[in-house]
Amino acid sequence: MKETITVIVAAYILFTFTGYLLVLAGGTLLSRIIKNKLNSQDIFNKENETFPQEERLLQDEYSINLPAQYFLKDKKRKCWINIINPFRSLLVLGTPGSGKSYFVIRHLIAQHIQKASHVCL
Length: 121
What we know:
The chain has about 120 residues and is an alpha+beta fold.
């Protein structure tokens, strides 16, 4: 008789503890779902991979400005990569054929030639 009561008490404790853990896990998941559905102010996109970029064109005498595009809230937006002081350092990394010369070096040379022609005038 004592062994039967001990087994019943042990099973009750085990099932109660397991139920408690399942309620906690379910509550956590439910609160996350509710929070994500109600909070539409998330600045990241669906994949959580981007945030608002600099969209202003910032220019000075020596700046380099590279045009770019990014996705934010299901929209393709245009932005600028502004390198205000290229004399501090400029490192261009990428695999062979990834477009370093076409995207960065070409714009760098063209913009400095254009700015030098404005200075000479």
